[in-house]
Write a structure and sequence with these properties.
alpha+beta; 2 domains; five-stranded antiparallel sheet; four-stranded antiparallel sheet; Immunoglobulin-like; 4 helices; 27% strand; globular
Amino acid sequence: MKKTMILLISLLLFSTINIYALKAGKDFNSFTVSEHTKDGMIMIDINYFASFGKPVVLHIGINGWDNIQDIYSNNGEFELEFDRDVSRIDICFKINDNWDNNKGQDYFYNTTNYICKEFIKDNNDLLIAKDYVEESIQTLKDLSLMIEYHYEKNKENLRLKNTTRMAIFDGLELIKMINDSKSKENIVEINKRLNLFRDVVENLI
C-alpha cells in the first residue's frame, strides 16, 4: 500500500513538473520572472515593477555569476534567452546609483527547463546520469539515517524524512529507466525526471 501511494504521488509530481516546464516563473518583492521554452532555448521575461517606469539596469549572471552583463531597459521589462544548460540566473538591479540586490544577498532564479549537457548527448551519457543518481541516492540514504537517529521527532522532521524516502524511491525508478533506455524518446523523458530529481536533491541536501 505504501509503495502504491508513493508511486501515485511521484507520478503526480512528475506530471505537474512536466506541465509547468512549458511555462513557469516566480514572484519576488520587486519583480517577477516568467519562463518558457522556444526553439530549444530557455526564454526568460523579467518585469522589474519597482522601477515605476524609470530606466533600470539589470545586472545579471548565470550559474553562480558567470558571464556577467548589464542590460538596460527604459521601463524595467527584459526579454532574455539562455541555453538549456543554464540552471540558475543571478540577478541585481540598479536605478541611478541605487542598488536592489536583496540586501546584499543578490537574487537568483532556478530555471525549470534546465537540462544538463552531460545528460543529453546520446546513450553513452546515460552512464554519467546513472552515476549521478546512484551517488545522490547514497547521500539521501545517509540523510535519512541522520534524520532517524539524530533529529528531534516532530512533524517537520517527519515530513523531511518522508520526502527523503520518496526521493530515494524516485531515484531507484530513474535508474531502472536508464537501464531500460533504448531510444532518444526515452532520453527526453529521463532528462525531465533528472531535472526533477536534481531539484529535490538540492533542496534536501
